[in-house]
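Summary for the steering committee. One of the milestones for this cycle was to obtain a three-dimensional model of the protein with alpha-L-fucopyranose bound, which we needed before selecting residues for the alanine scan. The sequence and ligand used are listed below.
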Amino acid sequence: MEVIEGVFGSLNGRNVKSYTIKTDNGMELTCIDYGCIITKINVRDREGNLENIVLGFDTMDEYINYSPYFGCIIGRTAGRTENASFELDGVSYELPKNDGINNLHGGPHGFHNAIWDSSIEIQENEINITFSYTSPDGEEGFPGNLQVTVIYTINNANELIISYRAKSDKKTIVNLTNHSYFNLSGNLKRTVLHHELMLKSDGFLELDSSLIPTGKVLPVEGTVFDFRKGRQIWQGVESEHPQTKLVGGGYDHPFLLNANNQKEITLLDRESGRKIEIETDEPCVVLYTGNMLEDHYEIRGTQSQKHLGLCLETQKPPNMINHPNFPSSVLEANQVYRTKTKYSFTLI
Ligand code: FUC
């Protein structure tokens, strides 16, 4: 395996570092210490062409001016929090309102635009990049000094494993994810409309008009939300289902996973032959099909457009902090938050 370390750019007088990892089996991943952003993942198609399969930029300016959370770590809370507030033990906490009246992805100064400390460890068959960040008590409205570590492990089996760890000195809430937008066509040759997705999920969370999960689980059976036997994305985009229309044509929904660590999420593109299998210990995945991607900028020479990429955000269901029926995002003081998601890059 090979590592190339470099300087990606700078922010407020501080250099932003980049790491490019090359496996022995033709996969290359580049990430930076700003937001732990994965800027590029090159993998081969069935003909052997090595091409990029995520949305990303090559300059800091573009990340700052245009990026709708491309490739970053989201925290402290992924997704939307209703009315940008929550209650813990009778105390109410106010968060920044950065999506109408709601809080989105932990607020405007969330983990996605922090510069993290980083270090690299090289072994024979895997490389670990460890990112650390301490979010001070009260940052973006959240209680507790929170120490966060995110490790990207890349190995010779062409897997990426993201391990999350966090610990707070006060009771708080945490729900982390990675926000990579995948496009398996290679160098953005096509949209993701003909990508095929398989999800081991019998139910998804209903959203209200401001995209807040209501707490109601809707069965996928008989709808375009049924990915149990595989389904192409365009079917949801063209569907008349009120929940797909509500989110701008497509999906932006938390799916409850029936299984963990059993290839419960598979994305594939028949034309290129590329496939990603995802295994996680998280109870839910938010499928976002790029319905709100705007078209006033280019992504490495390709005009951005709706459905140019899709996100598979493994996490706990958003906004269900005090909902007894769902896995909770509450983290007790000095308790360790730990989750893991593995992405395997293969061919059909
Ligand atoms: C996703 C979606 C949101 C939003 C954002 C950029 O996680 O759930 O609706 O558009 O990313």
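Key point for the committee: DSSP finds three helices and 30 strands in the chain.
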